[in-house]
């Protein structure tokens, strides 16, 4: 088979020096290493870019070709964002011929769905160019609107999204799920199970090898470790769904027990930042909890090298019955850290692979017990936990492995297999 050409259409794509959504970049780089021609197509304005509208048209991001298509700006989750969602597929259709001249006629077009509204355009272009049409499902719509946002099932946007989702499951040549337990749900909505594929979020081994980038958070972690403290890191968004207050509550429980061995470095930003800082102040935990703003990836990995454990939590949601695939979990595993996993979901890689402790989300005493247990372990046992997590993420979530799965889907279809 000659080198294939892949178009990866992701409304919120970013990458190093551009923004926080790294999957498109990492897959693109892995496909290039496998000999494929690649372009990542995204909106020039979206909320996950470091500087929206800074890049327009053709650019390379870390050596991967990107096309930033002009889309209107928006703020929050109102009408402006809906208009932005609708603009990307229209721009894609308008520029398709030029994109084909610049990057080559596609053999596979992947429409990724942080939201699904671009799929009709990606599918139409796949049919036009004789390419494989792939629907990549990151979030389940309209369930996310109903169960997470509380939108009525009768809302016009929900009804529209429901029809679009069923259309995608019926028409796509392949459906890729980032979540492990979605096959039955998708089958009930029209998907032939032979076209279902599980390709989760990935982890970049090269990210763990980034050069040290010292930061105030890293200096604090080093100081605490020099004092013999067990340093737990949370690095990620500080929103209501992230449930980071449960970590603060657990440290308050430990303080009440007289256990001062454990400290926490919290790195990130979000609407809960001020409330979390107030909780720390009210509980008089300033001597054991430190906050720092969002840090570039190299700074995060430098911090993780000076930590003893990673913490991840999510507020319980029925939607998690389909599983979770959180990037920060894989970052902790790449750093060989044991993990306290405070998430109730349809999958639990921490428990399954013995690389930390799984606890009930929001349960302060139980989280405190897990933190105390980690602090009590000999360093060699914590290292063994971290090594198990590292081996798991290397074997199941490396981007070259995930990229190869997409190429196998394409090769199978070209050979006449389902």
UniProtKB/TrEMBL annotation:
Record bears the keyword Protease: no
UniProt keyword terms in alphabetical order: Transferase
A matching Pfam family: Glyco_trans_1_4
Domain Glycosyltransferase subfamily 4-like N-terminal: 26-202
Transmembrane residue ranges: none
Recorded GO MF terms: glycosyltransferase activity
Protein name: Glycosyltransferase WbuB
Taxonomic lineage of the native organism: Bacteria, Pseudomonadati, Pseudomonadota, Gammaproteobacteria, Pseudomonadales
């Amino acid at each position: 088979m000659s080198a294939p050409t892949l178009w990866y259409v992701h409304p919120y794509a970013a990458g190093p020096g551009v923004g926080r959504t790294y999957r498109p970049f990492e897959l693109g780089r892995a496909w290039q290493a496998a000999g494929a021609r690649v372009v990542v197509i995204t909106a020039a304005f979206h909320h996950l870019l470091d500087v929206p509208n800074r890049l327009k048209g053709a650019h390379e991001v870390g050596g991967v070709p990107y096309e930033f298509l002009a889309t209107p700006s928006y703020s929050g989750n109102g009408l402006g964002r809906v208009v932005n969602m609708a603009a990307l597929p229209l721009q894609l259709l308008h520029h398709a011929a030029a994109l084909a001249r610049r990057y080559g006629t596609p053999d596979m077009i992947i429409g990724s769905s942080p939201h699904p509204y671009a799929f009709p355009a990606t599918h139409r272009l796949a049919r036009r160019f004789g390419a494989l049409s792939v629907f990549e499902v990151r979030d389940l719509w309209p369930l996310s609107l109903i169960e997470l946002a509380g939108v009525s099932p009768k809302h016009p946007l929900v009804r529209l999204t429901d029809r679009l989702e069923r259309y995608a499951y019926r028409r796509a040549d392949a459906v890729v799920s980032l979540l492990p337990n979605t096959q039955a749900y998708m089958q009930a909505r029209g998907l032939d199970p032979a076209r279902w594929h599980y390709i989760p979020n990935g982890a970049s081994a090269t990210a763990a090898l980034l050069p040290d980038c010292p930061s105030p958070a890293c200096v604090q972690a080093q100081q605490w470790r020099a004092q013999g403290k067990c340093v737990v890191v949370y690095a990620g968004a500080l929103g209501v769904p992230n449930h980071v207050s449960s970590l603060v509550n657990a440290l308050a429980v430990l303080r009440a027990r007289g256990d001062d061995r454990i400290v926490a470095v919290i790195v990130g930003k979000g609407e809960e930042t001020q409330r979390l800082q107030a909780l720390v102040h009210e509980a008089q935990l300033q001597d054991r909890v430190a906050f720092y703003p969002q840090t570039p990836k190299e700074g995060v990995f430098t911090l993780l090298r000076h930590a003893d454990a990673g913490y991840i939590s999510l507020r319980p949601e029925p939607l998690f019955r389909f599983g979770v695939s959180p990037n920060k979990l894989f970052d902790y595993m790449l750093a060989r850290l044991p993990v306290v996993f405070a998430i109730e979901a349809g999958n639990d890689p921490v428990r399954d692979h013995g690389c930390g402790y799984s606890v009930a989300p929001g349960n302060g005493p139980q989280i405190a017990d897990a933190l105390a247990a980690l602090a009590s372990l000999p360093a060699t046992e914590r290292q063994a936990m971290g090594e198990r997590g590292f081996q798991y993420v290397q074997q199941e979530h490396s981007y070259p492995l995930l990229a190869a799965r997409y190429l196998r889907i394409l090769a199978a279809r070209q050979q006449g297999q389902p």
